[in-house]
Specification:
single chain; 84 residues; mainly alpha; two-stranded antiparallel ribbon; 3 helices; 32% helix; 5% strand; flat
Length: 84
């Protein structure tokens, strides 16, 4: 099953994957997240039609005005989230 999936991903013209929040809460979350990203980086599917793209919450990073800043520390506000 794993080899078949690897062959299909390798032969595909583009690949997009979805990482569920449950993976981020497991003991091996860093490794899982890293391997998940390799699934679309290695075949060259980033920013390609039918491939992987950044989530829309990152869009403010690429806007001419940049991102908003927190009033106290000046840290960037990305996707409405502020660092603590």
């Amino acid at each position: 099953l794993l080899r078949t999936a690897a062959r299909r991903i390798g032969a595909a013209t583009s690949v997009a994957v979805f990482e569920d929040l449950g993976v981020q809460q497991s003991p091996n979350s860093t490794l899982c997240s890293y391997l998940n990203k390799m699934l679309w980086i290695l075949p060259g599917s980033f920013a390609k039609r039918g491939g992987q793209h950044l989530h829309s919450s990152f869009a403010p990073l690429f806007r001419p005005g940049g991102v908003g800043r927190t009033p106290v520390t000046g840290a960037p506000i990305i996707g409405g989230l502020m660092p603590s």
